[in-house]
């Protein structure tokens, strides 16, 4: 064997390409090849196992490497159709040594996506007692010392005890789903401990049904102490906590998803971040007037880098029936032009996908064409358009549309856009787009949009 193949760095590069070149979804060939390399040659054993377990290793597979009589998974089929790994005897030191050998190689743990209680069809479910027993074997060290990615569901105090044993300083991605119906006493303390326990975190996601103001404050303070974050999905932040942020905290931030009580404070948060956001999503329960939203939008465009933004979503909650008519996100053609010029590299734009406003859209087909001219890479657009300008003309738009076909837009969600003449709207859209998929949630116009979609597809054949 060539001497260069004994160099661990070369082995690591070669074995990694085995995984990359296997384009199948399950990657069975890559797994079999790496397993064969580990068994065939002592020189390949450690590196091949490292790559195999980094890509495919799970805590369930590490458990299944221990004696069968300990976990007995094949004998216990749960009602959901998955194999349930349950503790059938006491865990010995020899069992622990076997588990530990493989646990050192595990990089990803996702119990949040493997939980039967979420109604998913699973292959393997791990009993909480078995996990707790493993976590208690060596309290001086984390259960998975080299873990880099963790997804976890918190139902009660027991889930908190387990996750404390799993979190490590090597963790770079943490996704928490708080499903606790009743208050969990130590949850606030746990949230506060995330920053010192995982100082290298680059991605933090916190989903929750409902959290107290004290817990929202803890999340905000935790963010202030995580200086390497590139991705934040925290729908629990309170607008009053944004004052503690400054532009130096999130210099590396690329993805921000926040659910604010009012959209003004959410925009204020973004304006404090002088960074190069790629993905920005704001959802608000506030029913801000359209004129105020337009001003906030212009302020937002001056805060987010001109060339960086690729995905922008702004959603406002459904307004009460007795609220004023000036609610939601309603931009005119001028604002549409400002948006297109502010972020020319945008790929996805979604404004009020699920909100029906009681007044017509202020964006006309002229505003729609601004995106064609200034956003050549746009692939998905969700926007309410007033097509009456097209419907009132007798095919005269051919003269001012010209050759403006957009090459990449494939998803055009018209949300609650009103339509009266399906043929004219379909003919107009066929001049602009190579292919689109139009959707509509409003029953009153659903049939006409379906007709426009059929006509559009027929015109593009």
Task: Briefly summarize what is shown.
This protein has 461 residues and is of the alpha/beta class.
Describe this structure in words.
- The protein is of the alpha/beta class and 461 residues long.
- 40% of the residues lie in helices and 13% in strands.
- The chain has 18 helices and 14 strands.
- The strands form 2 sheets. Strands 2-4-5-6-7-8-9-10-11-12-13-14 form a 12-stranded parallel beta sheet.
- Strand 6 (203-208), helix 10 and strand 7 (231-234) form a beta-alpha-beta unit.
- Helix 1 packs across helix 3 (42-56) and helix 12 runs parallel beside helix 13.
Portion of residues within helices = 25-40%
Strand content: 5-15%
* First and last CA, distance: 58 Å
How many individual helices? Answer: 18
Structural class: alpha/beta
Strand order of the largest sheet: 2-4-5-6-7-8-9-10-11-12-13-14
Mean pLDDT score = 78
Which ranges are low-confidence, i.e. pLDDT below 50, for 5 or more consecutive residues? 112-122
């Amino acid at each position: 064997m060539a001497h260069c193949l004994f160099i661990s760095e070369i082995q690591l590069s070669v074995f990694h390409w085995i995984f990359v070149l296997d384009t199948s979804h399950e990657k069975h060939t890559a797994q079999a090849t790496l397993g064969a390399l580990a068994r065939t040659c002592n020189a390949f054993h450690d590196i091949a196992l490292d790559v195999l377990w980094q890509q495919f290793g799970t805590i369930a597979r590490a458990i299944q490497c221990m004696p069968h009589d300990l976990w007995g998974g094949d004998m216990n089929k749960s009602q959901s159709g998955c194999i349930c790994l349950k503790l059938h005897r006491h865990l010995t030191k020899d069992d622990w040594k076997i588990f530990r050998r493989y646990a050192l190689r595990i990089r990803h743990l996702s119990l949040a996506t493997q939980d039967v209680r979420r109604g998913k069809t699973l292959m393997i479910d791990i009993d909480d007692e078995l996990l707790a027993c493993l976590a208690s074997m060596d309290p001086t060290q984390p259960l998975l010392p080299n873990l880099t990615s963790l997804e976890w569901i918190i139902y009660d105090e027991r889930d908190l005890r387990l996750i404390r044993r799993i979190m490590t300083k090597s963790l770079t991605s943490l996704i928490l789903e708080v499903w606790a119906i009743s208050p969990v006493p130590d949850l606030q303390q746990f949230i506060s401990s995330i920053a010192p326990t995982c100082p290298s975190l680059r991605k933090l996601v916190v989903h929750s049904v409902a959290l107290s103001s004290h817990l929202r404050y803890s999340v905000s303070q935790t963010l202030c102490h995580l200086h390497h974050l590139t991705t934040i999905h925290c729908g629990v932040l309170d607008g009053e906590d944004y004052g503690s942020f400054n532009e130096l905290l999130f210099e590396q931030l690329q993805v921000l998803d926040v659910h604010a009580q009012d959209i003004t404070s959410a925009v204020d948060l973004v304006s404090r971040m002088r960074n190069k956001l790629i993905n920005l999503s704001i959802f608000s329960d506030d029913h801000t007037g359209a004129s105020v939203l337009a001003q906030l939008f212009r302020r937002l465009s001056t805060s987010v880098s001109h060339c960086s933004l690729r995905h922008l979503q702004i959603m406002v909650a459904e307004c009460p029936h007795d609220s004023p008519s000036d609610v939601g996100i309603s931009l005119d053609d001028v604002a549409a032009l400002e948006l297109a010029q502010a972020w020319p590299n945008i790929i996805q734009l979604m404004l009020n996908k699920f909100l029906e406003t009681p007044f017509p859209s202020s964006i006309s087909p002229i505003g729609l064409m601004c995106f064609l001219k200034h956003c050549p890479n746009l692939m998905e657009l969700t926007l309410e358009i007033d097509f009456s300008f097209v419907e009132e003309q007798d095919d005269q738009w051919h003269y001012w549309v010209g050759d403006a076909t957009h090459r990449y837009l494939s998803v055009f969600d018209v949300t609650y856009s009103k339509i009266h003449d399906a043929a004219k709207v379909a003919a107009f859209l066929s001049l602009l787009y190579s292919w689109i998929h139009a959707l509509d949630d409003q029953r009153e116009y659903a049939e006409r949009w379906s007709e426009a979609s059929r006509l559009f597809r027929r015109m593009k054949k």
